Amino acid sequence: MNKTLLKEHIFPVFMILVGAVLAAFSIECFLLPNTILDGGVTGTGMIINKLTGLPLSLMIVVINLPFFFVGFKALGKRFLFRAVVAIAVFSSMLEVFATMEPITDSELLAVVFGGVGLGVGVGFVLRFGGCLDGTEIAAMLLSKKLGMSTGGIIFAINIVIYSVAGFCFDWQSAMYSLLTYFITFKIIDLVEVGMEGAKAAMIITDNASVLADTIYQRLGRTCTFISAEGLVSGSQKTVLYCVITRVEVNEFKRIIRDADISAFVTISEVSEILGNHIKKSAPVKEEKALTNCDAAATIDK
Questions:
Q1: Which pLDDT score, from 0 to 100, does residue 281 have?
Q2: With DSSP H G I counted as helix, E B as strand and the rest as coil, what are the percentages for the chain, rounded to 5?
Q3: Which of 62, 168, 228, 245 has a CB 3.0–4.6 Å from the CB of 297, allowing a cystine?
Q4: What pTM did the predictor assign?
């Protein structure tokens, strides 16, 4: 079997399936029986399920549809395919696990084990380019317009959902749900590496302008151009610096691969961002790097 096919397509989809199954198991066997809610679309569906009796699997598909349509326009066909696969398996397994007996009737145990299981499952899905919750897509797009972090917008949405749950059920369930969210949040951080989603990418290449334009056209991100010089070769290089979100990392890597150019790339975590790092309408322009001295960076490819 072609190694590229296995690594780039089959294995990621398999891990998305594993994550979707684990997330569905955690919700149906730990959280939902104890009226502990997830956030986002899943949490909204759980509230509707509790109030109306409508199937949770159906609610998740219906509510997610408009978000995934927007996500397709922003992130492309590969994202849509993997997101649809994740949601299809997630919804199907919710129906399967709904017939099983709850693992525990202890709210505290449900919070801990359900939160960990959900975090690992969602982390797998996100890490391999899928998505189980449309609010993440909405938050990513809103962050471009509002200048707020993706994680901050998701947190605000979830606070509203848990407040509604408090009024509809009881405040103890809402507080347990919020505690579950924090556990899930942290586990996703460990599995997917970077819940907030801010990643700094540095690309050393001889085709900087073409690559920067492609990144802008497909992700709406501008790049800073930094002049550099190879320490050993002595040749002039251009370093592109770009900040992207975690949802865009998979598509960003694909852009580099599809460009079929010589490039050395590093992607690192960003702990904090000050200012607006996303420009949606401005044309791509070369920006001169600002340093404490006028010397060019010395970087060897």
A1: 41
A2: 60, 10, 25
A3: 228
A4: 0.64
